[in-house]
Design a protein that fits this description.
The chain is of the alpha+beta class and about 250 residues long. The protein has two domains: about 110 residues, PDZ domain (Pdz3 Domain, Roll); about 120 residues, Alpha Horseshoe (Serine Threonine Protein Phosphatase 5, Tetratricopeptide repeat), CATH 1.25.40. About 50% of the residues lie in helices and about 15% in strands. The chain has nine helices and seven strands. It is elongated and about 65 Å long.
Amino acid sequence: MEQIWWRFMRATVSIPLLTLSLSHCLTSEAGQLPSVFRGVVVADSPVGVRVVSVDENSQAALADVRPDDIIVRVDDQELHSIDDFAAVSTRMKGRTTKAAVLVFRNGQPVMLSLHLFSYPILNAWGIDVLPDHDIRFAEPRVGFEYWQRLGNGFEVAGDAEKALFAYGNALHNVPTDTATAIRMSQLFCQVSERQFQRRRLREATGSLRNAVTLMQKLFEAALSDEQLAAMRDQLRSVVGTLKGLEI
């Protein structure tokens, strides 16, 4: 900590803070990719990165990250540039739920505990689904049950895509629930089949890819003959639709 503090003081005395255009800033929305620091805009700084702005009600704001904070370390990784910040953010995505963030505020070191927008479902299942990470419950089981109820309701209403979104959030809270993963694989097949029928080929291919990815992971679990048969039948239905397409 002391070494970082002296490095910060030397840099702020000897080099003025850079004034950068927005094109030199890194935002969490860039390229529409999810960021672990969603809602934070940063710019280069002589030491670490300078926080330009923080979205109100974002997790960063709740963790007390403020404009003009200088982020110098995330967990054990020191930041020397905006590229370091981008690399750390990308590496943590989907793998980390919390991080200790060291910032300098008015020349003084401040330790913050930041709940990161991580994606456990991506880490566990490898599917191309981005859950509503703003609503990840502090008690995972509570969040899981909440989203499960929503998913069941959407299924009853015949809305498979919204059901998938809800079940994805359920797995986001409890990624080890095999039954939910099985249901998602079946729904992805159903959605893919409809999309193929409507000639929405790009979307259909993505949905089918998610279904197959889930199934590949599920084959490592202890599934019953009934569960395996249900997945087989669902895939057969999609293949039948593909064979009937006139492309």
